[in-house]
Every structure is written in structure tokens, then in C-alpha cells.
Amino acid sequence: MSESHMNYSIRHAIDPAAAARMGTEELRTNFHVPGLFEAGRINLTYTLYDRMIVGGAVPTGTALALETIKPTGTPNFLDRRELVVVNIGGAGKITTDGETHSLATRDMLYAGMGSSVAFASDDPGNPAKFYLLSAPAHSKHPTKLIRIGDAKRLDLGGQETSNERSIFQFIHPEGARTCQLVVGMTTLGTGSVWNTMPPHVHDRRMEAYLYFDLPENARVFHLMGEPAETRHIVMANEEAVISPPWSIHSGCGTANYTFVWAMAGDNVDYTDVDPVPLETMR
Fold it and tell me: Which CATH architecture has domain 2-17+35-148?
């Protein structure tokens, strides 16, 4: 469905028993989110998992305004929502309520409920690629720019387990305030390919992943499903995937990569997870 420079699609929630019976194409149709970053357009996927919206905006010529879509049911997109934007492309600018913020690659901007938002690139030949994440909000928090160097950094894993990685928490209790969005970025070290291993689940929050910085001929095998009934979806560069609350979220690449993770739901505590012992997985 199309509205001006914006496209959107809807993904309905799937229960674990239904997902366990799905083949490759059904899994991809319901959970895989390709084609987010299209020059001159804003592409959105509205999910029925905690009403999270994932999307991409690639301004090339004129600025792209974030306009409302029918599923939000409001005159303006953020009337009852909040927004996090992560830039994975060239330098760009985001204007919120008349104030302009400059974002280099890997910088993040939070825009609170009721904000107006527009996107622009510094160089149309090397456009910004803004990854959009939005969830319902109950109160307005201040707009805040968080540069990658200002994010809370955690270094985890090791070379011996092929999961040496740096986690950058953009949204956390001591940083920008949100209603329910929790967002961060994980970069794997050279030679490391596993993310979120050992795996976990968190029934109180859904999650979405965007994989990028992946060579053209490389792939990430994103793992999902209940711990004793796992499935996988093969991911290419700059593709997203929806991870339901009942699902593990883990993955393994054919090369190292970076991904943005985002959660929405009942609890904004990053550590509120239920570990999954590897011996219980099937």
C-alpha cells in the first residue's frame, strides 16, 4: 500500500505452534523484512507484536517527511507513538519540530510522542540510510541525539567462542528516556560470527533485528522458534527480521557483521531475560 513517498505493509502476530508448522517461504513471509532502504522513499512494516513499526528512510533529493499511515489511526504519525532512528548510511539530518540534528553513520536520534519528523541527506550520492523503530507511547519525552561514541558500551564474548562483540546501548535507564523502546547496536569482532549466544528469550518484550555491514556474498543464519523447536531464516545485508516474544533470538554469520536490536513491550530493563541452556535446544 502506498501513500505519497511512503509504503507500508502489515505483519500479523503468529503463535509458536503455527510457526513450528511453517516452511521456508511461510517463515520469510511472516518474519523476514527485506527492502527497507529504497532511494527517495520511506518503507514501513507495521507489526502486531507490541505494535512495533520497523522501517527505512533514504532521502536523496528533497527531504522526506514522516507522514501518518492508516494503521496508526491518528492524524499524525507520532501523535500516540515514539520513534528511534539509527543512521547506517552516509551523513544526514533529521528535523524534529523545527530543530535540525546532524547524524553521522551509527548515530541515533530519539523523538518523543507528538513530534514532527523529516529526513534529509548531506550528499544525495551517498545518502543517509535511516532505520526507523516506533512503538506506542503514553507520555512525551525529550528529543535526544546519541552519538555512537556516547552510547553505553559493553564488551562481551571471546575469540575462543567466536562471539567477541561490542554492544552499544543507545536507550537504557541511565540514558535517553523512552516509554517502551529499548534500542542498541552490536558489532562483532573480526573472526567472530555468533550473536546472542548462549541464547535467551524474554516473554515480556518482542524484538526486531537489522543486520548490516555484511559483505554482499555473505549471509547471517538467524535462529528463531521455541528453544525445543528452532527454525532459521537466511538474512542478507541490510535486511530486518521480527523476533516474537516466545522465540529465541540468536544467529551465526558467514562473516562478521553489525546489527541493530530493538525491543518493545512491558519492561525496559535490558537484563530482564530468561537464559536458554544449550542442552535444552533442539
Answer: Sandwich (2.60)
